[in-house]
Amino acid sequence: MSNHDLILPVPAPARLWRERLGSAMPLLVLGPSLVASFVYVFVFTGWTLYISVSNSSLLPTYGFVGLDNYASLWANRRWNIAYTNLFLFSGFYIVGSMAVGLLLAILIDQRVRGEAAWRTIFLYPLAVSFIVTGTVWSWLYNPVDGIQALVRGLGWTSFSFALASDRHYAIYAVIITGVWQASGFAMALFLAGLRSVDQDLVKAAQIDGASTFRIYRKVLLPTIAPIFLAVAVIQIQFAIKTFDLVAALTKGGPGISTTFPAIYVYDLMFQRGQIGEGAAAAIMMLAAVAVVLVPYSFWVVWRRRKEAGHG
Amino acid sequence: MADAVLDQSLDHRAATVAARRHFLTRFVIYGLLVIFAAIYLVPLLVVVLNSFRDQQEIARNGLISLPRSFRLEAWGQAWSSYCIGGTCEGMQRNFYNSLKMTIPATIISTAVGAMNGYILSKWRFRGSEALFTCMLLGVFIPGQISLMPWAFILGNLGLSNSVYGLVLIHVIQGISFTTLFCRNYYVSIPDDLIKAARIDGAGFWRIFRKIILPLSSPILIVTVIWQFTGIWNEYLFGVVFTSGQQQPITAALVALTASGTNVRAYDVMSAAVLIGALPPLLIYLFGGKYFVRGLTQGAIK
User: Fold this and answer.
1) Closest B-chain CA to A31
2) Assessment of whether the complete model's pTM goes beyond 0.90
3) Does the interface ipTM go beyond 0.90?
């Protein structure tokens, strides 16, 4: 047999093999990533979902307790504070960072000198971690050493600025810092949007004698409306996941006044050994993300189809 | 004659009014920009200045004041001798931990993302779009969902409290992003280029090496910058899965500032904060264009 092979080398099976391998190559290379992503997205979520209906405390155990963990979660005062904070933070943070970002984008759009320099200044906080931002701002909020000390030192001795150490106002300290960090991001997206608007539209409005203010209100801003939505969705997503910023800035305090869902999950799972309830809280976070993202993705797909239909 | 003169002076007046208005709007625009720039720069300036000030001077004059002293010792202490929770080695070990975590995770996730993007854009098969959508879901899942599964997996692999465990997490988590970036970029490379190469007998790898890779540098730079800054700045997994000497720099910074001894050593802490912030800041300053591109792409798509 082997002699036969040597004399008459028939390459067909080998070539077939190679061709088969060649055509299977994309799947072979993609395979591990697909498996990993599938595990990450579906198995991990299912696993945490399962823990959330189990009686796990210090370690995961798999006795089924139904929705008990969810019930005790929603009965907990601290969780109520956490999601109230989330609503408060999301609202102010999104509106604040979008308002500041839009203002900055419009200012930079006025053919200012040194545009690149301004942009660099407003965007740099994004390169820095929330840990760094939170740490530095916690010093600025510190009544003994920070802004309050500065203003009092200038002569206004009754000036009071102790946001972060007041349980009623600490959440606003988190909001201000969040807006500071994120408005550059909104600016970058708005500016990119303003620049992509068809200049003929603007020229036509100018010829009609419209003022700059009117052109923005009637022509430019309506045209970039989808960007507003995109920015808002991204910011909401971020707000739901807020963890680092609070961990570095207020550590959830004073007391429990700046607890967020993400902080709560971490505490239950790794500080208090209540894994089941912690998993329930994590699932609630996922649900919040889904509530925002699912309708948004449907809207995006619908809009693309519509545009494709018109084009 | 008189009319003409009157007209002229009216014109002139209108022109000065317009010029004045123009000057006023410019003044307001630049005024606002300067105010906002100050708000953005002051925190950075405060940290930089305080890292060179004398601790006693900070205690006396507060954090926000003009420096009256200049010393470099705080940087040395923050780097190699300041005590965090009993060990007095400064931030250097945590800095190296962050490097050891960030560099491999960035390289691996970018390489895998480039391959995935190449396949999902140029070697589509039945169902590949659906699979791509599934992979994308990974972008949106909150890290909290994966904490328990990761704890179990890392424990069984013997990777808990290790930098390699964090590398694994960041690679798996990063694949969704890197695949998304690369796929959306490769879609714009004409398919005819690939077809022609296939007719010439080039295979899967050859096309990738000879056609795709040479065209990839813009997207690879964007992806590397995005992954590097994201992983370097990550905190949740670092604080949950490592402790003490294994911690990346973000977790160590929180431990450092929380370890409140009698006097808050603002000078050393400022230097430590800057050490932690410097790598991504440098990347931002030198690769700013790509950084912003990654940001807008990652956001809109």
Assistant:
1) B116
2) no
3) no
